[in-house]
Amino acid sequence: MVLIRQAMLEDCDQVFALAGDFATSFRPEYEAFTDAYAQLLGQEDALVLVAEQSGRVLGYLLGFDHWTFFANGRVSWVEEVMVQEDHRRRKVGAALMARFEEWAQSRQSKLVALATRRAAPFYLAIGYEESATYFRRLV
């Protein structure tokens, strides 16, 4: 059985390994990752979740919420979701998203949003709809 829970400092190395598989534009560097990881675990507007089975982290989710003008309140943003390849299509990602949605609702967020270029079929399958085009500029 897969347990979805808040990440702990002890999960750092396993989450780092997954983050390396998530990244396409950047390569995570261990020192920068560990600094960010510790900061995010203590950040009130951030949530880091892990999917664990028998002490093994199978996936993680990093998300935030913040105030907006357009939604008349808070919105929640999923920054990263990653599941080990051999555990995809087993509802691990859906369980991570469901727990994040519960957190967003508990914080009175009006919506949950994210950007993806590789996983659109997954998000459509769990009830998300395409809404915008994503732009970026590296600085």
Description:
With 139 residues, the protein is of the alpha+beta class. The protein has four helices and five strands, in the order βααβββαβα. The protein has a five-stranded mixed beta sheet. It is globular, with a radius of gyration of 15 Å.
- Spatial ordering of strands, largest sheet: 1-2-3-4-5
Helix content: 25-40%
Largest sheet: 5 strands, mixed
What distance separates the N and C termini? 42 Å
Order of helices and strands: EHHEEEHEH
Number of helices in the DSSP assignment:
4
Structural class: alpha+beta
> How many β strands by DSSP?
5
β content, as a range?
Answer: 25-35%
Roughly what is the average pLDDT, rounded to an integer?
93
How would you summarize this macromolecular structure in one to three sentences?
With about 140 residues, the chain is an alpha+beta fold. About 30% of the residues lie in helices and about 30% in strands. The chain is globular and about 40 Å long.
Question: What is the element layout, followed by pairings?
Answer:
Elements lengths: L2 E4 L5 H11 L7 H12 L4 E8 L2 E13 L4 E11 L8 H15 L5 E3 L5 H6 L14
Parallel strand pairs: 4-5
Antiparallel strand pairs: 1-2, 2-3, 3-4
